[in-house]
Amino acid sequence: MLKYIFFMVCLIPLGFMKKMWWVVQNSLFLICLFMIMNNCVGLTPWNLSYYFWFDVLSYSLVLLSVWIIILMIMASESILDTYFYSGGFILLVLLLLLLLCLSFMSSNLFMFYLFFEASLIPTLFLILGWGYQPERVQAGIYLLFYTLFASLPLLVGIFFLEITKGGLMLWNMYMDFNMGDMFINYLWYFSMVIAFLVKMPMFLVHLWLPKAHVEAPVSGSMILAGVLLKLGGYGLLRVYNYLELVAIKLNLLWFGVSIIGIWAVSLVCLRQVDVKSLIAYSSVAHMGLVLMGIMTMGVWGFSGALTLMIAHGLCSSGLFCLANMSYERLGSRSLLINKGMLSFIPSLTLWWFLLSIANMAAPPTLNLLGEIGLLNSVIGWSSMSMLGVGLLSFFSAGYTLYLYSYTQHGKYYSGMYSCWGGNIREYYLLFLHWFPLNLLILFAAPTMLWF
């Protein structure tokens, strides 16, 4: 795996040369192909070095990161056409990819924290440098301060763990770790968990996400929805071995907040008039379900959380691409203006339909398998949650149909009646979101059993 990291580093100078933009993208396709062909990840993790390792969880999210970065470059052709700091854009994108891969491969908890926080910097510059509106500065400040304030207790908790336990290696964790004093146990638990809850994000600490999505360029929205939200779930899956004894007593709190938050966010989705804001709030709802699955602390919950994280990364990224395509043609993200697209761009309506049904977890998409695993674990953990998760599925279908019907049906008011089908690059981009989403369900069931 380290050879791919060095290859990515060597691609950075090519981004500053004209006519080398697509060389970088095709090289990343080659890396992705080699990673798929050389996949021999099983039950036993690989020790790449003293601070890096590789297992099923790392492999899945590293491959997702590389794939989303490739699609980011493909979706950002307007930056290449205008030559608006295209070299700097490639530099930030590849730097972000390196930091994400190193985060997912870190076997030391402090190294993971270091790369986890460093991935915030390229994302912030993507929003500030290539955002559409002047409000992007405020969105960047929200993103920065929400993450930094929540991450400082995590750093203190890691140092405390180093002092009391004498090591931070993820393969050297004890399931019965307990400091004795219950107050210190709870304090340490909150310090280790709150940063990941903000990053997911959990309801009540989610306000930075819609602002960042609305003001970010299409590449920023894709990487936020596709990979950066998964850092929180990945961190929880890694550190929960430390926290098992305290988590058993406190998981009901996060469980209740998540299920009430999913209802509230789903109702907020039905009141949105901004397409990107609606898709961003739907991400909060889906990641709330992932959090509920992790809090059950069972095999079905963990494996279903991983499956839904990968499925949501592909599905939500594709929806943001579609929202950007409508924005480029109409100059607005408002649902009051984005009407009648069925008669204006009928060829894109099929892709809206395919990605919308994936967002509501219809078969045969990977979202269905992830939600089945999560609903199984949640109802098995507490039968009282059956009504809650039933309403969750209903609301998910409700706001997705609201998004699809408002954008595709209705009277088109802009005075333009010519139909335009787009270009091949856009259809290729949407196909590369949708095809893995339906293909991976054939391979995800064995992976859930391995996990």
Automatic annotation (TrEMBL):
Main localisation: mitochondrion
Gene label: ND4
Top-rank EC class of the record's enzyme: translocase
Keywords: Electron transport, Membrane, Mitochondrion, NAD, Respiratory chain, Translocase, Transmembrane, Transmembrane helix, Transport, Ubiquinone
Keyword Transport attributed: yes
TM regions (residue ranges): 20-38, 50-71, 83-105, 111-131, 143-163, 183-209, 221-240, 252-271, 278-300, 306-327, 339-358, 378-406, 427-450
Coiled-coil residue windows: none
EC number: 7.1.1.2
Subcellular localization(s) per the UniProt record: Mitochondrion membrane
GO cellular component: mitochondrial membrane
Stretches assigned to the NADH:quinone oxidoreductase/Mrp antiporter transmembrane domain: 106-393
GO molecular function: NADH dehydrogenase (ubiquinone) activity; NADH dehydrogenase activity; ubiquinone binding
Protein name in the entry: NADH-ubiquinone oxidoreductase chain 4
Reaction(s) catalysed (UniProt annotation): a ubiquinone + NADH + 5 H(+)(in) = a ubiquinol + NAD(+) + 4 H(+)(out)
GO biological process: ATP synthesis coupled electron transport; electron transport coupled proton transport
Family, as annotated: Belongs to the complex I subunit 4 family.
Membrane-protein topology: Multi-pass membrane protein
Boundaries of every NADH:ubiquinone oxidoreductase chain 4 N-terminal domain copy: 1-102
Function: Core subunit of the mitochondrial membrane respiratory chain NADH dehydrogenase (Complex I) which catalyzes electron transfer from NADH through the respiratory chain, using ubiquinone as an electron acceptor. Essential for the catalytic activity and assembly of complex I.
Pfam families: Oxidored_q5_N, Proton_antipo_M
Entry keyword Membrane: yes
